[in-house]
């Protein structure tokens, strides 16, 4: 059955509604960044750029790096934006946009997020790289989908018990990253653990301005949470959403962060732009191998 126009919205030129993209505009290897200005910081390393577009916060450039075709895309901030981006990317490769029917042969994309974050532990220093083996969703976006088939209930239960989580906020989700991409992008300079994903920047991440928050101790509880030796390494706003939707749709996803601050020691990188540039070049070279 064809997907209705109200469910899969296309622009007059046939591109998907929010991203302004057609299937031929994207590569199979896609790098996500939050900030639209960071797209050019990555594609400046490319040998050539074949396509560029932007609509709202969604900026996309596709080109070639050392013979490897790669797409770089800004997602904006938060799980709600990831819901738009991954569903529309999947539609580009797995739905025939003319007939509006899912394809019989499905395509699996490789999605790598490059971000910046603060470390929660003194032994994960500034200017290091963190790889998310799991995404821990503190938001509730993924619960709109049938997520239990790809989530890790054991870690979820342990986290709920450890933090005395208020289930009025919804059940947290824990989704593993892609072991295929982990092997592809791994090295001895990578720290690994759980990346927590918040649904907002202020209260959901424990920041207090004029509003009291439901659990003022949540950050410290996360600092000392461990499941079979795996710790929560950092906190941001996209990873678990990327992991969950990718797993459900059959895509490979992995999140990498340059650590520019260490909350445990109080240190901040003397040159955070250099740390990000090093992670960009590291990722590009791993993808081109």
Care to describe what's here?
With 289 residues, the protein is of the alpha/beta class. It has a single domain, classed as Rossmann fold (3-Layer(aba) Sandwich), CATH 3.40.50. The chain is 26% helix and 29% strand. It has seven helices and 14 strands. The chain has helices at residues 37-43, 79-94, 153-163, 179-185, 218-223, 239-249, 272-288; strands spanning 29-33, 48-55, 58-65, 68-74, 95-96, 101-102, 110-119, 129-137, 173-176, 190-197, 226-227, 230-236, 252-262, 267-268. The strands form two sheets. Strands 1, 2, 3, 4, 7, 8, 9, 10, 11, 12, 13 and 14 form a twelve-stranded mixed beta sheet that branches. Strands 5-6 form a two-stranded antiparallel sheet. The longest helix has 17 residues, at 272-288. The chain is globular, with a radius of gyration of 19 Å. It starts with 28 loop residues before the first strand and ends with a helix.
Question: How is the topology of this model organized?
Answer:
Layout: E1 29-33, H1 37-43, E2 48-55, E3 58-65, E4 68-74, H2 79-94, E5 95-96, E6 101-102, E7 110-119, E8 129-137, H3 153-163, E9 173-176, H4 179-185, E10 190-197, H5 218-223, E11 226-227, E12 230-236, H6 239-249, E13 252-262, E14 267-268, H7 272-288
Helix pairs in contact: 2-6
- Based on secondary structure, the structural category is alpha/beta
Helix content: 25-40%
For the record, what is the CATH homologous superfamily label? Nucleoside phosphorylase domain
Gross morphology: globular
- Determine the mean pLDDT: 95
CATH architecture descriptor: 3-Layer(aba) Sandwich
Question: CATH fold name, please?
Answer: Rossmann fold
> Domains counted in the coordinates: how many?
1
Per DSSP, what share of the residues sits in E-state strands of 2 or more residues? Answer: 25-35%
- What's the total number of strands? 14
**How widely separated are the two ends?**
41 Å
What is the CA-atom radius of gyration, in angstroms? 19 Å
| Biggest sheet statistics | 12 strands, mixed
SS field, number of helical segments? 7
CATH class call: Alpha Beta
Report the uncertain regions.
none
Sequence of secondary-structure elements? EHEEEHEEEEHEHEHEEHEEH
């Amino acid at each position: 059955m064809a997907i209705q126009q109200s469910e899969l919205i296309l622009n007059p030129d046939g591109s998907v509604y929010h991203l302004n993209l057609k299937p031929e505009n994207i590569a199979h290897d896609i790098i996500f960044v939050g900030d639209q200005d960071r797209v050019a910081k990555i594609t400046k390393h490319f040998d050539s750029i074949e396509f560029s577009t932007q609509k709202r916060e969604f900026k996309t450039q596709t080109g070639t790096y050392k013979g490897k075709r790669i797409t770089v895309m800004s997602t904006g901030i938060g799980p709600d934006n990831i819901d738009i981006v991954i569903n529309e990317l999947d539609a580009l490769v797995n739905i025939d946009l003319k007939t509006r029917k899912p394809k019989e042969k499905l395509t699996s994309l490789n999605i790598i997020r490059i971000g910046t974050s603060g470390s929660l532990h003194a032994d994960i220093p500034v200017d290091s790289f963190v790889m998310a083996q799991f995404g821990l969703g503190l938001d509730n976006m993924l619960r709109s989908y049938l997520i239990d088939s790809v989530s890790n209930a054991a870690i979820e239960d342990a986290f709920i018990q450890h933090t005395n989580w208020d289930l009025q906020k919804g059940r947290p989700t824990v989704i593993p990253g892609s072991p295929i991409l982990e092997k592809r992008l791994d090295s001895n300079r990578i720290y690994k653990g759980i990346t927590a994903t918040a649904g907002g920047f202020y209260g959901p991440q424990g920041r207090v301005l004029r509003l009291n928050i439901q659990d003022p101790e949540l950050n410290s509880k996360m600092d000392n949470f461990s499941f079979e030796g795996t710790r929560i390494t950092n906190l941001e706003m996209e990873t678990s959403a990327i992991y969950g939707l990718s797993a459900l749709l059959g895509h490979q996803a992995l999140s990498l962060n340059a650590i520019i601050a260490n909350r445990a020691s109080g240190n901040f990188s003397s040159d955070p732009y250099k740390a990000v540039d090093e992670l960009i070049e590291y990722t590009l070279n791993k993808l081109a191998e």
